[in-house]
Design brief:
The structure holds two protein chains of two kinds.
Chain A (H helix, E strand, L loop, with lengths): L4 H4 L14 H26 L8 H31 L6 H44 L5 H39 L8
Helix pairs in contact in A: 2-3, 2-4, 2-5, 3-4, 4-5
Chain B lengths: L2 H10 L8 H36 L5 H16 L9 E2 L18 H5 L33 E12 L5 E3 L10 E2 L5 E2 L5 E2 L3 E6 L10 E2 L4 E7 L22 E4 L11 H6 L12 E6 L14 E6 L5 H6 L3 E7 L19 E4 L5 E4 L1 E9 L46 E4 L2 E2 L2 E6 L1 E8 L6 E7 L5 E2 L14 E2 L4 E4 L1 E6 L2 E9 L1 E4 L4 E7 L14 E6 L23 E11 L20 H5 L3 E10 L2 E6 L24 E3 L2 E9 L6 E5 L4 E6 L2 E2 L14 E2 L1 E4 L4 E8 L4 E7 L2 H5 L3 E7 L1
Parallel strand pairs in B: 2-9, 8-13, 16-20, 19-30, 31-34, 33-42
Antiparallel strand pairs in B: 1-3, 2-7, 3-6, 4-5, 9-11, 10-12, 12-13, 14-15, 16-17, 17-18, 20-28, 21-24, 21-27, 21-29, 22-23, 25-26, 25-28, 29-30, 31-32, 34-40, 35-39, 35-41, 36-37, 36-38, 36-40, 41-42
Classes of the chains: A mainly alpha, B mainly beta.
Chain lengths: ~190, ~750
Amino acid sequence: MTTPSSTRGVRTDGRSGRTRAPWATVLLLGPVATFGSEFWVVAIRGAVGAIQRAQGPFGDWLRESALTLPVYLTAVLAALTWAGRRQGARQQRVRDVALALGVVALATTAVTAVVLAVNAVVDYRLQATLLVTMSSHGTCTGGCLAAGQRSAALLQARAVGLGTLATLVSNLALLGTVVLLRGGRLPVR
Amino acid sequence: MTLEQRASTESTSPSLSGSAASGSVARRTLLRVGGGGLLAAALTGVRGAGVPYLSDKGWLSADGAFAAVSTALGDKLYTEVFPTSPLILDPFHDELNVPSALRPVPPKQVTSWPDPPGPGIGQQNSLRNEQHQIWPSTLGLPDPIVYEIDLLVRPHSFTTSKVLPIDDHGRPTVSFDASGNRYAAGEVRTLPPSTIYGFNGTFPGPMINAEYGRPALVRFRNRLDENPLGLDRQDFGSPVWQFLTHLHNAHTAPESDGNPHYSIIAGPREHGYLPQMWVDNLYLNHPAGGDDREKQSFFWFHDHTMDFTGADVYKGMVGLYPIYDPKNGTDMGDERQGLRLPGVREDHPDGSFDVKYDIPLALYDCSLDDGVTMHHDMHDSQFPDAGNPRTHPEWWGMTFHKHFPNHGFVGDIFTVNGTAYPVLQVDRRKYRFRFLDCSVSRIYELKLMSSTNGPKSAVSLGYDGDELQGQYRIPDGQQCMQFTQIASDGGLLPFPLKRDSFELWPAKRREFIVDFTKYLDGSPTTKGDVIYLTNIMKMTTGRMWDSSSRFSPDPEYQVPLLKFVIGDDVPDDSEIPVTMRPVPPIPSDWRSLAEDRKIFEVERGSAGGEIEWLINGVQFDPEHVGRSLRNPNGNTPLAEQKRGSFAVWEIRNGGGGWVHPFHLHMEEHRVLSRNGKDVTQHALPSHPEDRSREDLVALDPGESVLVYRGFRTFVGPYVAHCHNLLHEDHAMMFGWSIIP
């Protein structure tokens, strides 16, 4: 459904009637957010991830950033589109820039939270299996094993929270710096 | 973007205040400059502070930067909280415990045992399923002297001094007693004894003075199920009271070596010997290959139970085993013979002997419970009586220990031979000191210092938090003497080394002559003079040092451990030799041998709510020998060696932020290179003992070390592992085998 642009104050492409995408901004902010966010994903994995997935973090960072780039670009696009609609046709003010920046940071952080959660599930499954294997050699069986698995799950949950928080802060800082370097401009259309 | 669109964008992009274009441009420029300034500041900060920090920690690489951040995140995620021990108010008044030699069991008594030791099948342990691989007669050696050591639950006091309970800011705080009574802040208390699992119930355990050519057999009996004094066992130590004794690093057959995987597949087929079991560990006191150059001089024995070595050692399972060389009187504890090293020998009719002026110094750090710190780790369910997670006010003042693998375990009270801050009255002459670090994770750097004003509590000097570790400092301390190093892990050095200070890593042994007759400047000492053995390495976590002489020295960190008070002149027939024991040669073609070396990389991993420690990416698997990483020849060989062979192995520190004292069982090695630099002719100043033989590779951050060693006399499974005992207990170990 297309909402009449006049009612939302959003400029549209005259030929199709659709909102124009701020591609330049998306292509600028997307990679910054991707590489910044994935840094925390890989760092969190180094802290609490399964052994076999926590080797060669630099290579992992490059690879996973490349793989997830489209998802982050989509998130940035969605956030800017929303910000553009909210801003409408009026000239962008400081408040609009801050809002757009915040929304982009939140959107990309939400993607990271999902990535972190998926990672946590994968890591937990590997670690739980490993704990069972280890218990066959060691003294940690029964209640100890269950405690270990519970501890692993809680740790992963805490790691998702910490990673999400760290990502949000770093996204605000990184994206904010980009906006500053652009003279305070954050075109949303 | 079209020109029209660009124009549109420019016109609708932030004017910030809707002001005139010129003003807007000026603001934009200002913002750009601000953004650039932020970036520049960040880069400058990284270059100025980050790069040196990462370099010191071995993290100066792309992967290293991630490791540094992961470590910082781990600190936030792993809950590893240590208590602040009560302040010992009267340090340096308890006498140093100078151990006497354990007396052997009379032969008549041994033959009357229902299960006397012997070479037959089933005679090696109480399960009657093992046999000594080589009985001494096979090597033309006499029957062994027999010792008897029981594992006992007993109390141990680290000090007789009164203490003041303090918090981590150094402020007086509340304390408790075993009945749960609460004492007000500021109330001075007496420490309750801690519960230990000790060899013959003492900490440190007995000292066996051994000699090459005279085998010793020790019957270790597990009586840890008996608790006649009704002591509180607390929540650490092997939960089912097993033990497994390793004589570190004797040339010993697998069944007597305390190899944890051997214990699982043979003998007790458990992680150790259970209560009421016994095992005869046979120590042939025979150098590898029968080569005099392979003779060592100071072993120690300790528990080696899989997953609980650190907890058991911390709980007291430590014993001492100096070994002398009577051949030609070389080093027989008699300063009138051979190398004339300090020592006055007193022989006993039962064949044992003591040596005056030859003193072992076992360094150990501990942490005492403050009653308000939470006890919680992965092993809680193995100690159901403790009811963790919870605090234990009833354990106030007793040893605190948790299996904290992320930080390692360091205590804030330093002890020598089981006593905190002891004093030793010395005669005015030369002494031989045999240093051992039996701490779980702590590394020391030791110096001999004098102080006009004496020790001051760290609290009184305004320190708090981790800076309280060690409790006392000598702010005006000055180096006053040198050490003359005569031996390392592998026995006597080729020649003595003068040392201003030396590092002592976990499980390492260093032997020194200290001449108490004169100071560094040659001036004579006088009766009543005081010298402090001082730790100058700050190490606030079990990972690695914060400061030491080699890295970021902190001149304020001078923690006295032991006070020497100089007494009367006495006869001294000892000398400082010019040369001692030559080292076995390294083959000239070692570089070509190194092409097919076995490579083992130690690194950090994570599993199930705890940090785990890995070798070549895997955890310790007791059922399989380890496998090398791909070597320059393209091979990935198993960690197996033919009996009688020699080989080059490489040990790599694959992760930054930690150092690892990496221990290879059964024979000593020579270091060939560090980070590719040949040290066979000239050792690096950072590791002067590389000219000697060692059984622990001191791996600095990010370091790679090539070693050369033999695999002689015995066949069977052995282990190699990190001797940061929390790393070992968290799987940083691999099995290797000698095959026929």
